[in-house]
Please model this.
Amino acid sequence: MSSADDLTAESSADASDEVSTTVEGTPLVDLPKVALHDHLDGGLRPATIIELARERGIDVPVDDADGLGSWFRAQSDSGSLVEYLKTFDLTIAVMQTEEGLRRVAREFVEDLAADGVLYGELRWAPEQHLSLGLSADAAVEAVQAGIDEAVAAVEARGGWIRAGQLVSAMRHLDNGVAMAELALRHRDSGVHGFDIAGPEDGFPPSRMKPAFDLLLGEGMPITVHAGEAAGIDSIRSALVDGHALRLGHGVRIREDIEVVSDDGEAMGVRLGRLAQWVRDRRVPLEVSPSSNLQTGAFAAWGSEFGEHPIDTLYQLGFAVTVNTDNRLMSGTSITRELGLLVDAFGYDLDDLLTFQLNAAEGAFLPLEERIELQARIEDGFGLD
Ligand SMILES: [Zn+2]
Model:
């Protein structure tokens, strides 16, 4: 059984939680995918947490892998981003050494490959991994070593995957410029871009403007968590102050869309200036449906998976991409997220292809590599 199967099986918390695993007869796991929004400290294998915690003498709330996976999911179902983020205390605690970071990164990329991912961006906040004296540069190098090992292992098996790091600065701390400089020092050795993460509400992107200005001046791509736990002012700041080329989730851009008529067949809408910019400029939305449900990101429009604004945004032409955010906390994979979307909205292969091509277009890769990635995706979907 592959690790992707493990994840899918584990995530079936109850018998009613059955998720489609195929679309039009094609196994979803076999479809080529792109993971733009996937936190390194949110994608550990439960068994690895237990082993690393034991080595370091750290207490775990449940000491069997299945039980620990269930614990993370239950803790993350709070409906609050702040509560959800507390589950990271444990994962970050076991990622404070070169060995821990390297192993977690290696397994993370191996699990992406098992999920059918061809290109993944791993985001994480080096400043949270220095409590045992590791330098931020050594931490980035340890993660890169794990990525490189996994890429080589996948290729040795005849597979193909590429991956890069996004350095996240924690938005409630004040290390933005130092983290931007860290990202720039490693831009030719594995760091593909920059992000800010952590509590969104009360910590607008404008707080980090000097870091963003530095990165823009150096031509380093930026994505910003915005429109998850705060609304359109946060999204505006991500674009204006953060120079964001993508939006982490961005689902609350829906607040800037007025439905003027809806007869069940067609929806008449009026887009505000901000929504119009995001749609017309094709700013990719890094939507993570299960995570968004868990953190209450779309609570204004409903509390069921099928009430997620993703479908409205997709139908209106926004550059929607599908992500996991934190595979451990949501007990999910991109395969499972696609299955949930197929069940909720009736998407077919063409829809799923569009999500992957949108993600490849938005990837923080040079143009020629994005074109190669798109060609591999079309090939994997059976197109020439
Ligand atoms: Zn995130």
